[in-house]
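thought: fold this chain, then report.
action: predict
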Amino acid sequence: MAQPQPQPQGRAGTAAVRGWRDALSDLLTRGVAAGLFAGFAFLLANMWYALSQDNPPVGPLQVISTVFHGSDAPDPSPANALVGLVMHTALSMAFGMGFAVLMLLVPMLMRTWPLLIGAALVYGLALYVVNFQILGRTAYPFFTDPAGPNQVLELLVHPLVFGLFLVPFFLRSPGSPIRPGPGA
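observation:
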């Protein structure tokens, strides 16, 4: 049985598809870079807090390694610190791309600084709720254990550090937001 041949699109249709493809590529690239930057700042905040509490600064990395291992508690080893760093980096990039997809689906959020900042704060708060309050209570109990991560700190750094550090990557310059689509 013959496969149906795709119908050629007109120049306008091809340009529109190319425009959206380029916009998606641009936003996902920005999302990866934003996630890496925001994730690094987030990790530094957690490491600083651990050190301020007389805990090893690699402790947050060892906690994150539990996501990879599916273990109930962190295993303080150099190998797990490395596993935690790789896991944290991968999740930061994925969360940055998730924010980029949100910007593509709801482009009005990129029209003004207040909307973009509000979206970033809500996104960071949503990450906290999903990661610590939902997944932490169901799949990763150490995340909500009193001996685990400080919930007040996590509630603050998710929106105020991770969320806000995403913002600059979705603006070309102050007052000139990225608009997905042709001519962006």
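thought: worth noting. Residues 113 and 173 are 11 Å apart (CA to CA).
final: tokens above.
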